[in-house]
Each structure stands twice: as C-alpha cells, then as structure tokens.
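Throughout our pipeline, every protein is held as a single compact record rather than as scattered files. The record that follows is passed on verbatim for readers who wish to inspect the format:
___
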Amino acid sequence: MPETLAGVSPAAEGPLARIRSKAARIGIIGLGYVGLPLARAACSKGFRVTGFDIDPAKVEQLNAGESYIRQIEAADIAHMLGCGLFAATADFNRLAEVDVVIVCVPTPLGRHREPDLSYVASTAEVIAPRLKPGHLVVLESTTYPGTTREVMRPILERGGRRSGEDFFLAYSPEREDPGNPDFGTSTIPRIVGGDGPDALALAAALYREIVVQVVPVSSPETAEAVKLTENIFRSVNIALVNELKVVYAAMGIDIWEVIEAAKSKPFGYMPFYPGPGLGGHCIPIDPFYLTWKAREHDIATRFIELAGEINTAMPGYVVERLAAALDGQRGRGLKGAKVLLLGLAYKRNVDDQRESPGLRLIELLETRNAVIGYHDPWIPEIRPTRDHPELTGRRSLDLTPAIIAAHDAVLVVTDHDAVDYGLVADHARLVVDTRNVFGRLGLAGAHIVKA
C-alpha cells in the first residue's frame, strides 16, 4: 500500500489538519510499559498529551514528576510537565478535551487460555459517551484479528454515532521492546490499519509525526494479524531451540556453541536462544489469541500450540536439571536445598515481572521442598500477580559472598548486566545457568553447569 495516501472526505479534513499542525491533543488510556513511552514520544514531537489511568497512585506519581518504569527517567516526566505538554488524570470525563484517543490497555489470557478483552471492552464503554465529532480512536493493545471492528466499533457506535462519519477508528499494534538500547518508540516503524480510508489517513498522519516510518495496511484485521505473526514467529523459533537444547544436552552437545557456530552462515539462518521459559506481556500470550480465533473457522493451530507446550515445559526441565546437579553435589536433590534465583524479571535489564518463568520456577521448586530466595537488581520486591499471589511482597536479597555461599545452588533465570557474575562464580557451591551468561563471560568451572 502506498505511503502517500489519497485525500480525505470533508469530515476528516479538520482532524487531519489538526494532526499535521500538531494542534490535536492526544489522550492515551493506560500508562504502563506501552502507554507511557508513547506519551513521551508524542510530547517530544510537540504534541500535548493527556494520560489516563485507573490507578490514582500512578497519576499522582506522574504529576509529581516521578516515574515508575525504570526505562523512563523521572527527568523525562518532569520535562514533559514543565513544557506544559503532559498531564495525567484518572478523570475520564476529560476525554472530551482530546482529539485523539489511543488505547493501551492489557489483553491477558483467561485461566483456560481464552482471550480476556474485558479491559478493551470496558475502555470502549468509557470512551463511547465522550466521543465528539472527528474523534480518532486507535487501539494499540495486542489482540486477535477482528477485535477493532467486532468488539470496539459496536460499543463506540451504540449512541448512534457511525465509524467513518462521526468518528474514526484504527488499529496500530504497539511494538515496544523494553530494555532494547537500539530501538525505542520513535525509531520503530508502525503498522496502521483503518476502519475505512479516512481512519487510515488520520492514523497514518498521526504516527508519521511521532515515529520514523508508517506502514499502512488494508484493514485493521491485517494490522492485528501482523502483530500476532511477529510474536508467533518468535514463540515458534524459541520453542525450536528449547527443544534442540533438550535433545543436544542428552547427546552431550552444547546448544549455545551450536548456535554461535550456525550464525556464522550469512544467509538462511537467524539465531534464537533457549531459556528457562517464556515471559513478558506478548510472546507467552499472543499466539493463543490466534489459536482461539482460528477455532471459529474450524482450524487447528497445531504448530502454534505445540510451540506453546514446549515453551511452557521449560521451567519443569530446568527444575529437573537443577535437581540432578544437586543430587550429584550433595546426594539428596532438592529437598531442603537452599536455592538462590538470580534474576526474576522476564528478560534482561527490565523491571517487568509479568509472566516471568522465575515465578513458575519458585512455585515448582517450593513444591519440591526447596527453600528459595532471589536476587534481582531490577525487581526489589515481587508485585501482586494473578497466578502467584502467595509470592507478593518477597524481597530481593543482597548479592554478597556470604549470601551466595549460604545457598546450595544459584539458578540463573535472567541475565541482567548489573550482576557481578565473577563474584557468583567465586563463592557459589553450584551454578545452574539457563542463559549461558557464564559461558559468554568466559567463567567456567566444574561447579557451573548449563540447563
């Protein structure tokens, strides 16, 4: 689809002019790991942004110039406030003040891996009575193809307003990668699909003012499918290397050495790396949105579901490797063993514990009567979770020679940079490394094993 879009209808001319002149005020609903970086990016381009969140504590922190996300500096928030470009609120009546509403709310899975669109639907319910002529509404939350037009549009149209005439509706999936120093909100191309040509034109114009490149597609459903495809691609390939890890370990072959050698090929190969399981708000969840939707068409997504099974099984595999290593060291496996988890965030150098395999590992290890502590410079305290409420409030231990030596084993879950791995290697009785961080750093010894 061409980057240069055709003209718009008279109903969209005013909104388009306001976007291009940056007179349009942007409202962002959901000020988490997606919404807050987007607010910062929009303010940096000169847009005025009102951030909406149901958590009054977040609103209070932001309006005080503080940040609760470590990738967002407090100085950035203070600058946005000082320039008069940003304000946070829990008063959703103020949606009437904005010209653009961008929805960045969670889309988790239910207990049976079914899509939970309650946040999307309730947000649409909040927006609907506050719509004004020319409003542009953009959904960014990851979801299955059809959500924008099948779930959001009917709610927004209940008051008699019509998408494409009275307001404009689009989908543009977030592509955040927390902790990635090379790519941020403004430097990642954006996919945009609109409910009609005017909505596409407006949404594309908006994101062109904020990000490096816009890629328009033919429909919201296509845009929704793009995001799922990106994350399914990662899920399937990670499952492949996780399975290869298990196979090669049985043969005495180091999967990380294999991958390093394989990636020397300049074509036809892309490296993916194994780990203790999948975490975060995207890859463990998004593939099952397509699996669920595919059932409406009587299609079985066998490849996707198999990848999910393999990745979900990884914490159990790690526990067995740890048990075997402890049995070889102390002769009685996990029972009563003191294990220090190194890293609890779902990925390196972020303060995000959502869906972290570390939480599942604690559960499995304690079921086996191990005594668990953890150290994570990014997660000082475990925050409440739906699946592991009993872990709430546990605090990170200091990483000292005495604490390391007091544990029977150190289990590497997340390979943060801000960890003294040499200290761990010197004082740990046993290290079980699921990330090959010790291998990468050239730290070796009979007491360091991979899992």
In short: The two ends are 46 Å apart (CA to CA). Residues 233-450 form a domain with the Rossmann fold fold (CATH 3.40.50.720).
